Amino acid sequence: MLIAVVITADRETSNGTNSVVTNQSQRFVQSLTDTLSELTAVEVNTMVVDDITPNKFIPWEVYRDIYPISKQYLDRQGIHKSLRQQYLHLRKQLEIEYCLYLKENDPTILQDSRILTDPTVSIEQIETRLPNPLNPGISSQEVNKINELLHNGRLLRTLRKIGELKVSLDRQNQMLNSSDNAPTLDSNIIYVQTITQIDGEITNRFHQQFLNHQHKDLIFQLHQEAVTMGDRQWQGLVEFTVKLLQFLS
Predict the structure, then answer these.
(1) Which of 1, 59, 62, 163 has the fewest CB neighbours in a 10 Å radius?
(2) Dihedral of CA 108/112/113/118: which sign?
(3) From what superkingdom does this record's organism come (predicted)?
(4) pTM for the whole thing?
């Protein structure tokens, strides 16, 4: 009897382990598939900056720093006037992504979300749907909403990009506010941009100042190398996913 019980227990443990592994694999593949479904293009932007500051991506911190952005907030923080619209655009992007996230579970959200239907509306003209991370008396329900938001793959990717842009804007703001020639400084220039669509269409954009830049040949060479590397990484990701799906099927 003892032997029979041990054997049965081993089988149940094995089956349970297999079930857990299978579920984890399915979630991983689904997450990878969702990511690929949104990758309709490879975008490579080349900028020239004074320094590169390493920043660890902490979703809660980025969300907390983006949430309060408004005209009044930017004024209190002393943000340079030439950058304020770009800051407001980041806040609007986050609001749009969250409304799209809500729309996935409730299509009627579209009817009440002016920010999704009116491209001219500003962030000041709407009532935010985002849960407030700065409220000291935040409820557990609001905390759960934020946690769900920060575990959504699409929103995380958007938040990461927004966070990177904000770091760049913060650096530009510091330079502008500390310079005697602040009005004449350029802000956040992308000199060269290449977008490769999944259907093969390629779009190149060049900033006007790039054409007269003293190091334009070097900048363009580095940009071309980045485009080649980006294309290879994209193709490698697709090939890996296809092979993984074939292996699991």
Answers:
(1) 1
(2) positive
(3) Bacteria
(4) 0.66
